[in-house]
Write a structure and sequence with these properties.
Helix content of chain A: 40-55%
Strand order of the largest sheet of chain A: 6-7-5-4-8-9-10
CATH topology of the largest domain in chain A: Rossmann fold
Largest sheet of chain A: 7 strands, mixed
Structural class of chain A: alpha/beta
Oligomer: homodimer
Number of helices of chain A: 8
Number of domains of chain A: 2
Low-confidence stretches of chain A: none
Shape of chain A: globular
Order of helices and strands of chain A: HEHHEEHEHEEEHEHEEH
CATH superfamily of the largest domain in chain A: NAD(P)-binding Rossmann-like Domain
Strand content of chain A: 15-25%
Chain lengths: 208, 208
């Protein structure tokens, strides 16, 4: 157990800070400030300073933050100072787009195993990775000690696949199936469903 | 201005309730309870009752909620008791997957215009919609009175396209480009970046 758990909403902002720092580094900058980060992120500079202070002292009053140093520290805090193997389940249009996406590796993730149920797809390769049968998925994930999965299967299959993944030792699931899934304590789920996000915004823009 | 604004975090949960109600309806159910919703969503029943009570009285103590009625009410509250036209910008792998996705319409959204900069793609069609040039995008969006856009362009192009969209009258943007974008007051942005979600989870699963 952590002695003083940091609120989850703070943890959720750290990846935003990390992404912005990576972009600043790519742009050739070496130093930044909470004000500059605030301008990029639409988060107040006071909030950014408060969030970061939960983890230590990363900058000096008046001189700002060293970008490379702060980036390394946040990578370490988030556990992405290493590369995580990720399994991708479901190679429909979305799954294929994820498999082809080149942006994961520099942010700490490598899709290293693909699974589908479609006999036409099994045996095909994407980026030199073979699409494997779901029948061998659990054993394969356990053998490879994969802890993270991205789920891009149809709604109707989602819970069953989740149960298999959890049984195989997966502890973090990024769920693209448009349904809520149930997992035991200690397994983490994040959901990506574009219609949810769109409906959140229409609340504010609908005509009164 | 709304007299008593409902917290944004509550608004963000309404689409989850709506999605679960739609699934219950599809399963042939007519009545549900905050306890049943809680079990599906991993949100406490007290929280669900409290959230819904901000908008009125939708159920009776002891008899639960009428699914069709509650669903209609949440659709109305979120402004998805109608269909919104949506522009999709960027027809790479992800944009194509979004264009092909069949799940938007029953949740209140219809992709009705596609834009890209690639001369090879312009003129091609997806689901009978032509991919149009970005050069004509702003005028086209304004003429069609489109208020919502999904942005699946590369990071480097994102802010420029956003500025054009906002200038053309777009007030809600679902941003798939892995970067924060800046918009004026009154324009709503939601971000989808799988690496952000994955990094949020690795905080909790990293070895101590």
């Amino acid at each position: 157990m952590r002695p003083n758990p940091v609120p989850d909403i703070v943890i959720g902002r750290l990846p935003l800070y990390l992404r912005a720092l990576g972009q600043m580094k790519a742009e050739g900058n070496t130093v930044t400030s909470s004000h500059e980060l605030a301008g990029r992120l639409g988060i107040s500079s006071a909030q950014i300073r408060k969030d970061l202070s939960q983890f230590g002292e990363f900058g000096k009053q008046g001189t700002g933050y060293n970008i490379a140093f702060l980036r390394e520290q946040i990578q370490r805090i988030l556990g992405v100072d290493r590369t995580w193997d990720v399994a991708l389940i479901g190679l429909g249009d979305l799954g294929r787009a994820l498999a082809h996406y080149g942006g994961f590796l520099r942010r700490g993730f490598q899709i290293c195993a693909l699974y589908d149920t479609d006999p036409e797809k099994i045996g095909q390769s994407i980026r030199d990775m073979p699409i494997q049968s779901m029948e061998t998925m659990a054993a394969d994930i356990r053998r490879k000690n994969i802890k993270i999965a991205m789920l891009a299967v149809p709604l109707s299959a989602a819970q069953e696949v989740v149960d298999e993944l959890v049984g195989a030792g997966v502890v973090a699931i990024l769920n693209y199936a448009p349904t809520s899934i149930t997992v035991p304590e200690g397994v983490h789920v994040q959901q990506i469903d574009p219609a949810l996000h769109l409906q959140h915004m229409t609340y504010y823009i609908k005509p009164d």
